[in-house]
Amino acid sequence: MHKNSNTPNNLSLIKDNDKLFFKSLLKQIDELSRTVNEQLATRIRFSNFLLIFLFAVVLCLSVYYEEKLIAISNYLSIILCCIAILALSYFIRLRSKIADLAEATQEISLQLNKRLETEYVLSLNENKIAPIQISPHCDISRLDVDLSSEMFRDALFFREKATLIPSTECFIRWRYVRASIIYFCCALESWVNSTLTKKLQEKQKVQVLPRFEHDLLNFLLNEDFYEPHNPVIKLNIPTKLRKTLPQVLSLQEIDDEIINQYLELVKLRNRIIHFSSKDLETVYESETLYLMLRSAPEIIEKLITMFEPDNVPDWVKARP
Prior knowledge:
The protein is mainly alpha-helical.
């Protein structure tokens, strides 16, 4: 199988067990296709031989009995002709079924090859999957990175890709939809943590931070921070949005309805990440899923605007 130059490298990260399974499945399909074709050829040859033999028997008996027992020969001729017709009908149906089976196995093989070429990068070496070579090309410390922006743009990218996938490719479309929902939530949570860090650092320059805010800043900046009973460890996104962020930003009022809209998106994200059987309909073809996908950018923009109306990031305002 040849490498698809249009396939992104991140889609080639497939588990070894999956690689072996796909290769084994392709091999089995090829073997089945060959077996079906061989059986088809054998049955056709046998059916042709049997029909010729039956017609020869009918002809010989007709000639033989014509001189002696015309009545018996007529009956035998009719019986043998019926047998020949039934045999011909049977082998025609058998030939059609075998041909359909061969066509079906060939179609499965083509579809699976197309799926693999679209989603995975396989090596030309039959027994080895070429590993992805990852090497740093830049010094991260020299870059002004913004994960919130990257996550938000990734979410928009996957949302657009989902709209371009035909309904027949439902599994691929679902993949883009799920990725978009997850990335939208990651973008906002990254923005919340970045905003908390920035504001706490600014406050620290002019005043001594209260214990909670001091510990929170330490937790956000210090990867070695570990105090199991410290309340900053257990902060979740609803608490950050309803209490922590308003406190740090010195906001007197917040619109709880906007927060609730975003938390609905978070609930959907959690159902995807912590999937169980009860979430099947919601995570796949529910109306809620696609409504949230369409409204997610606006929800995030309204939420950020509520907290920092004078400092809404360009990656939110200037989206396509």
